[in-house]
Each structure stands twice: as C-alpha cells, then as structure tokens.
C-alpha cells in the first residue's frame, strides 16, 4: 500500500497541482455565477419565482437527478461514463417495493435492498469495464437495458405501491428540519441530497478512492504502471456510483409512493448534463462534487423558471440544450488557455 | 412452451406460405376491383377459409402502442379474453415508448412476415405505417385499427375511444366543479401523439366555446410521474389563483395530484384525471381527485380481436367501433358498469 501511494506521487507533479486547482475553482465560480444570474433574472421576471415554497420546490426537484449525478461524477472522473443510472435507479426502486410491499419486510430492510441493488448493478458494470475490457459506454448501455428489462419483469410491468408502508413517503417528503424549526420545512429528500453530496465530496477529496479515481482518469496506464490495481479500484468506483443510484431510486419511489417500472430512461442524460455543466471533464481526471451540485441546480432552476414564465415546453428543452453547449464550450476555452 | 410456440409459428408460416401461393390465382380477380377500398373483408376470404378448414387456429398478432403501461395491459387482457372465447391465437406486443415509431413499424413488419390471418394495429404514426398497411392489403391480411385511427381506408374498422368527446366531457365536469369561471391549466401527457393532441384540443375547444369565463392559463406536457409533479408545482407557483387542473393520462394525472399535494393545495384545486390505475382510484375514493374519464381499454382489446375474426370470416364489420368512455367519481366508482372498465 505504502509503495503504491509513493509511486503515485510523481504522477501528479506538484508543479501542476495549483494549476488544476485554479481551473477547477474558476469553473465552479463560473457555474456558481451563472446560477446566481439565473436566480436574479427569474426573480425579476416573475414575482412568483423567488418565494420560499418555490425555492424548496426547486431543491426538491433537484434531489433525484442530483443524487444520480453525484454517482455519475465518480465514473466520469475515471474517464468513463455510466448510461445505466436512470434504469438502475428504477430497478432499485422496484426492488425496494418488492421487499417492502411483497415480502413485507420493515422499511429499513427495503432501503437496504434498494441500495444493494444499485451497488450490485454498479459492481457488475465495473467488472465488465475493468476485467472484461468492455468500453464503459457499451457496458453501461447493456446494463441500462438489463436493468430496464428486469425492472419490468420483476414488477410484472405494474407499478409497485407503498400504500401499506406507513411513513415511507416521509423519507422524501417529510421534514425533519421542519419538525425542529417550525416553518423551515425543507423536505428530507433535499437533506439526503446534500448529505450524499458531502459524503461524495469527502470520498473524492479525502480518501484513497478519490485519489485513485483522479489518477485513473488522468492517466490510466501510468497509474497501472505505478502498481495500483486499477481494475479493482474501477469496480469500487462503479459500485459507489451504484450506491448513489440506489439512493436516488429510494428517493423517487418515496416521492411517488410507488415504484414506476417504466420510468427512468432519460434520467441518465440529465445526470450527465448536470455533471458536465458543473465542470467535470468527460475526458476524465478532473471534476468536483460541488460543481455537480451546482450543475444540477442550474438545470432545475432553468426548467422551473422557464415553466413559471409559461415558456412553451419545446423551447424549454432548446434553452437547456444551449446551456449545455455554453458550459462545455466555456470549459474548453479555459482548458485551451491553461494549456 | 417456447418450442411449441416455434413449432406453431413454423407450421403456420409454412401453411401461410402455401396459402399465399394458392391464393394468388384467386386474388388477381379481387385485386382488380379492390381500389375502391371497402372490399377488404371480401378480399380476405380466400386466405381465411383455409386455416379454418385445416383445423389450424387463426393467428392474429396485435401491435399496440406499448406494453408497459397499465392501459395497454388492460387492452391485452381484453384481447386475450376475446381470443379465448373465439378460440384464436394472438400475440400482443408494442414498443417501449410512444415515440418509438420506427420500432413499432419493425414489429409490424415482422408480424406481416409471419403471414397472419389478420392484424390488430394501434398506429403511433399512421402516415409512417401506410406502406406496411398497403402491403397487408395486397397480401389480403385484414387490418383492424385500434385505440387511434389510421388516415387511410385500409383498416377494416377502428376500435377506439373518441378522445375529443371524452376530453370535452372532462371540460364540462371541470366547469361544473369550479363554478363556471376562473383560471385552469392542463398537463398533457405528450405533445405530438394523436391521443395527446386530441385530448388537449378536445378539452381546450370545449372550454373556449362553451365557457367564456374560464381561462386556460397554462398547458404543459409530461406523462412522467415525477416530471409532471414538478411542473404542476411550477404551474401552481406561477398561477396562485388556479382553480383546476386536467391531467390527460395516468402519469400526468398522478403528477398533478402529487404536485397539488406537495404544494399544500389539497382541496383548493380541482383535479380531473384520465384512465385509471390504483393511485388514481385511491385518490378518487378519498376525494383528492374530483373524478376522471375512463376509456374502456378491455373493450378496445376485446372488440379488436372480435372484429378481426369477423373480418377473416368475411362478415361485414362497422367502419368505426366506438368503445366508449365514462366519467367516474367517488359516487359511481363502484357501479358495476364502471368497475368493469377500471384497472389497478
């Protein structure tokens, strides 16, 4: 262990370190700045926008895709991609439903089953990518279909309801904060999102997992040559992403009080968009959790604001598309400058 | 199970091949006079009489618009019921989403290649399907359209709900429930599909023509439960005086319901839904949803297969089979007639 971390050091030369930090900082600043600008513009455009209930609504609508995006950040930093997060989320939701509503387990067991389902799918994707050498795009595409099919098969193509599990919707919609500070009713889903973000951020910046994650993304071959078991760590990283996906599955199931087996496809693209807007590079080796959180918030502020202004939905999609263009272009410009 | 299915299909394929050959001669006459259109039941006679004679079960593939959605599962139940009663073999398949026009056409192509006795088809895009329907016509395979019509006279009949009339009824109920004036909104499940367009327009037109004091302030689209929830909240945020929302299918309606509940507007906003499903039925029983329009999906499936068999036998079939729709709320939800068409 000691040897590997020693061997890793020349791989991230100290001379380059401040540079990377700086560019990450600017990307975040840019993203954060755009978020503030959006908030101001929408607040001026409609008096109905900047209200406590609406801000809470925006945060709540960010929770599911946000948690998905957290997991996706890990994978994207390795230089990979995970297309399966949308349908694996659905499969996790369905498994939670099967556990609670069909097997009659206590809620906490159901949650565990959901998270484990996500982790298992992530683990399989990771194995396919690292040991079977299937490109991440293809491996996770396959997993996307497998999860989608399984969700339908297991649920019998019917939604699984949680009507008998009292308190299940409170996981998303209850408000612990509101119980403690009356009036400050921020739904639990938002707290879970932020807690997951903090944990994700710690994992990425303070642990070996995070260090190897960046190393693999910057230069996989060099990391391997320096003695790191790249295959193993990749599986770990995909599994972590799977855990986040499982949590998202629980959040969506709890919010809808049901596991909808046909839902989920398309969510992976929203998650990836949030990650990219947040400044994580699709070529790997660079990215932050804070950026992803801001990216996810930008997406939902944008859709919410445009909806409140009653902009036709067709145009909402066009605008979001342009924002992704701009975000990636800004990122490229900056990197060119840095290089 | 699989083996026997393969054996069946191989057998029917062979048989159909022989039939096609033998039918060629007799068909030439038929095709000459076929341009008028209405002759398809007659033209299908030769292909049909043979399997019956040889004791083979008639084979009728049904290509639906989907299979995951509860609604299509109910259509399937109806189709299977008719198949059992009439002793015919059916298959039921459909693409994953209602945007996958291409996938549906592939399924149609495969079904046609199996040389079935008739085909049940719910077109996602009726214009795109035309070449395939022409092909069916030239091979004397009667086509039964269901759920939504096809812009062509090839289908022998169309078994469907009059979605415009159904949504107009929803509009009348909405007007009644909000007292004839105020702001309302629509959450439609889809911008482009025929049912999406018909339900939206049927509702909007009825409100505009009959209720000048009611204003539709917003129309947004999503049949995805979660997205419909978020957009309903945004609509309520933008229009605090909103009195009612109409959700045009199960996903949209449940989204509206969730959005209203999360915005703590329960009881202040009249919610009207479409179709059924457990969540919607529960909401109507508890009064959170004022009521909904239900189609008769089981009837659609049943009538489709029944009409297909009739067409194969060369009986005359009505050009349109209206499978009906009903308004239901907590007062009549347990009536026999309503109960029969609802699904969980």
From TrEMBL, chain A:
Keywords: Cell membrane, Membrane, Transmembrane, Transmembrane helix. The chain crosses the membrane at residues 25-44, 56-77, 83-100, 107-128, 134-155, 176-204, 235-253, 289-309, 315-333. It is found in: Cell membrane. InterPro entries: ABC_transp_permease (IPR001851). It comes from the Bacteria. One of its GO terms (cellular component) is plasma membrane. Pfam families: BPD_transp_2. It is a multi-pass membrane protein. The keyword Cell membrane applies. One of its GO terms (molecular function) is transmembrane transporter activity. PANTHER family: ABC TRANSPORTER PERMEASE PROTEIN YPHD-RELATED-RELATED, RIBOSE IMPORT PERMEASE PROTEIN RBSC. This is ABC transporter permease. It comes from Cohnella thailandensis.
Automatic annotation (TrEMBL), chain B:
Residues 1-22 form the signal peptide. SUPFAM superfamilies: Periplasmic binding protein-like I (SSF53822). It holds the Pfam family Peripla_BP_4. The keyword Signal applies. Residues 62-315 form the Periplasmic binding protein domain. Its main location: other. One of its GO terms (cellular component) is cell envelope. One of its GO terms (molecular function) is carbohydrate binding. It is found in: Cell envelope. InterPro entries: Peripla_BP_I, SBP_2_dom. Gene3D superfamilies: 3.40.50.2300. The keyword Signal applies. Keywords: Signal. Belongs to the bacterial solute-binding protein 2 family. This is ABC transporter substrate-binding protein. It comes from Cohnella thailandensis. The lineage of its organism: Bacteria, Bacillati, Bacillota, Bacilli, Bacillales.
């Amino acid at each position: 262990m000691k040897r590997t971390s020693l061997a890793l050091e020349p791989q991230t030369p100290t001379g380059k370190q401040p540079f990377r930090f700086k560019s990450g900082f600017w990307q975040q600043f840019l993203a954060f700045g755009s978020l503030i600008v959006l908030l101001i513009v929408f607040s001026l455009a409609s008096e109905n926008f900047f209200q406590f209930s609406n801000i809470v609504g925006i945060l709540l609508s960010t929770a599911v895709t946000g948690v998905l995006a957290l997991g996706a950040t890990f994978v994207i930093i390795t230089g990979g991609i995970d297309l399966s997060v949308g349908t694996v989320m659905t499969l996790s939701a369905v498994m939670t439903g099967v556990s609670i509503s069909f097997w009659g387990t206590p809620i906490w067991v159901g949650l565990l089953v959901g998270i484990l389902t996500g982790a298992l799918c992530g683990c399989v994707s990771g194995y396919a990518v690292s040991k079977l050498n299937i490109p991440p795009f293809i491996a996770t595409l396959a997993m996307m279909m497998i999860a989608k099919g399984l969700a339908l098969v297991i649920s019998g193509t019917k939604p699984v309801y949680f009507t008998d599990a009292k308190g299940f919707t409170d996981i998303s919609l209850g408000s612990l904060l509101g119980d403690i500070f009356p009036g400050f009713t921020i739904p639990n889903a938002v707290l879970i999102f932020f807690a997951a973000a903090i944990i994700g951020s710690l994992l990425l910046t303070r642990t070996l997992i995070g260090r190897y994650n960046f190393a693999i993304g910057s230069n996989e071959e060099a990391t391997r040559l320096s003695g790191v078991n790249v295959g193993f760590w990749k599986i770990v990283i995909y599994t972590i992403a799977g855990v986040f996906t499982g949590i998202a599955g629980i959040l969506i199931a709890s919010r809808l009080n049901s596991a909808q087996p046909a839902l989920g496809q398309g969510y992976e693209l929203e998650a990836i968009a949030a990650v990219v807007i947040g400044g994580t590079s699709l070529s790997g080796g660079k990215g932050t959790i804070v950026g992803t959180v801001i990216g996810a918030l930008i997406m939902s502020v944008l859709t919410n604001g445009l909806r409140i202004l009653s902009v036709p939905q067709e145009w909402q999609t066009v605008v979001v598309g342009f924002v992704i263009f701009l975000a990636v272009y800004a990122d490229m410009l900056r990197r060119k400058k840095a290089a | 199970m699989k083996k026997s299915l393969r054996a069946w299909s191989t057998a029917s394929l062979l048989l159909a091949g022989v039939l096609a050959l033998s039918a060629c001669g007799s068909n030439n006459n038929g095709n000459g006079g076929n341009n008028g259109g209405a002759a398809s039941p007659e033209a299908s006679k030769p292909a049909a009489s043979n399997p019956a004679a040889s004791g083979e079960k008639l084979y009728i593939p049904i290509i639906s618009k989907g299979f995951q959605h509860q609604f299509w599962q109910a259509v399937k139940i109806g189709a299977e019921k008719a198949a059992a009663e009439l002793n015919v073999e059916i298959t039921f398949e459909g693409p994953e989403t209602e945007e996958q026009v291409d996938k549906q056409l592939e399924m149609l192509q495969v079904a046609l290649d199996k040389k079935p006795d008739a085909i049940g088809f719910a077109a996602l895009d009726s214009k795109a399907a035309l070449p395939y329907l022409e092909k069916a016509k030239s091979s004397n395979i009667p086509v039964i359209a269901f759920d939504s019509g096809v812009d062509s006279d090839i289908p022998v009949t169309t078994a469907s709900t009059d979605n415009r009339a159904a949504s107009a009824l929803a509009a009348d109920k909405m007007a009644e429930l909000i007292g004839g004036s105020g702001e309302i909104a629509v959450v439609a499940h889809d911008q482009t599909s025929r049912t999406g367009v018909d339900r939206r327009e049927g509702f909007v037109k009825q409100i505009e023509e009959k209720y000048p004091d009611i204003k539709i302030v917003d129309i947004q689209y999503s049949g995805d439960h979660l997205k419909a929830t978020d957009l309903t909240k945004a609509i309520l945020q933008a229009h605090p005086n909103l009195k009612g929302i109409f959700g045009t299918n199960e996903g949209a309606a449940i989204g509206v319901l969730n959005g209203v509940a999360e915005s703590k507007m329960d009881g202040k906003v009249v919610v009207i839904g479409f179709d059924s499903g457990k969540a919607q039925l529960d909401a109507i029983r508890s009064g959170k949803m004022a009521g909904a329009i239900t189609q008769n999906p089981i009837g659609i499936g049943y009538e489709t297969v029944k009409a297909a068999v009739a067409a194969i036998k060369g009986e005359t079939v009505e050009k349109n089979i209206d499978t009906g729709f009903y308004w239901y709320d907590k007062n009549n939800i347990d009536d026999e007639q309503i109960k029969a068409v609802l699904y969980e």
